[in-house]
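pasting input
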Amino acid sequence: MTAPFPSHKQEEWRYADLEALRPVWEQFAGPVTVTVAPGESLEEVWLPSGDDVQLRRVQIALERGSSARIFVLNAAPVYGRIELEVSLAEGAELKLFGANIGTGLSTNEIVTNVKHAAPNGRSLQVVRSVLGGKATGSFIGKIEVAHGAQKTDAEQSVKAMLLDRGATANAKPELEIFADDVKCAHGASVGELDPVQLFYAESRGLDPAGARALLLEGFIARLWDSAQQPDAISEAARKALRTVVQ
Amino acid sequence: MLTITNLHASVDDKPILNGVSLEVPKGEVHAIMGPNGSGKSTLAYVLAGRPGYEVTEGSVRFTPSFPGEGRGPVQNEMSDAEASHRRDAPILGPGLRRGTEALDLLSMEPHERAAAGLFLGFQYPVEIPGVSSLQFLRESFNAQRRARGEAELSGGEFIRLAREQAALLGMDAEMLKRPVNVGFSGGEKKRAEMVQMGIMDPKFAILDETDSGLDIDALKAVGEGINRIMRRPDKGVLLITHYQRLLDYVEPHRVHVLQGGRIVRSGGPELAKELEREGYAEAAA
């Protein structure tokens, strides 16, 4: 059974490319559900499939003291959407490191809902977007801290780099906090490549596209630092950046 | 080797260089001295092709000599009209560098100038977070080699070259693994510029106040580095400095005084000492 077709009026779909989604909607079933048992840890690396439209919907239940580390590269040529809903039991930990890389008319978005249901949970979400042409890259990150989920530590860091005038970045944190002893931090910034850095790189022999790609690699470099197998996603990201700077 | 003729340049429509003419022959080190605001750094940036530094008049001829080994066929010397279209060429044609061909420097992109053998040592070396020096330099170095039609160095070969150059400048090779210039002190950045120069092994170096921010030991190391890397019969150096002290280690063949965007006086190494004694106002009078 697939869910009813979404609408832009729904907050979590407000930036979506519904036109691109409609013809393929029926192919996408409901979310994949994963449970991480108490004390266990999960590491996932999600790479782009290469399809024009890519939708990944995942629900993760983190049981007491468990942890998950998710690394995701979202770089669909037309529409890419990563939807992640995570519930954290006591002392659970979530780390999400994601990149939206897009060019042309593409839309890529990462939409999360992190539910701190019990005390001492920690979540860190780091999202970097690199957008050229008329591409759109978005992050909608909802954090719910339940009544009684004291000592929750939730952090979002969202940065976007716009390479062309027509590119768009959206960063939307949503916090619903019903506990009084919690730490919830979020920061967002949008910028462009530094012309002085570009000149420095070009003065050493890199052509303009190569210089831009290298600086952008630097911009997203730290995302994959804590992955056990960072090679595949680093390489895929490097490839995606090369197409964006052309 | 580098011939600057009647060079005028503006930044934000404000004229900074007002007719600089200067010739640095192969095998020579020339120093440019001058007070703050005289146009020294502007000259360096114009020669390296920094965007926003607009040349309004004049020309710069650059004649690097490359051995020509492993290159493509020699092409005929370009006329000026052809040279002015060089900008459209996607990459430099292999073989263009062979022999002693005069290049119209101002028609070339910054990366093409680098591939032709020009190196700018920055007064304020730029930090690039997230990119290690090794990666930055390997990619730059190999981009230059590709543009010249030369074989690229493998990762291992490049690391050996980089380590060797770092050691020669007294820099800990571990620093090469850190992001480009990030967290380096002023002196470390200048030393790192010289390590970059040693790796790139350019034909002509423009060194913009490479001596500023250096303590005595670092000054000596940097001076020795310049002599070791650049004091060769087929190379040239333009040393931009405020002070005599670097010139104690790197003795110039000629010293030029830049003031108000023009060379107002030129002389031998003794001119630098005179400037140090009497100041720019006296010396230029």
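fyi The first helix of chain B runs from residue 40 to 48.
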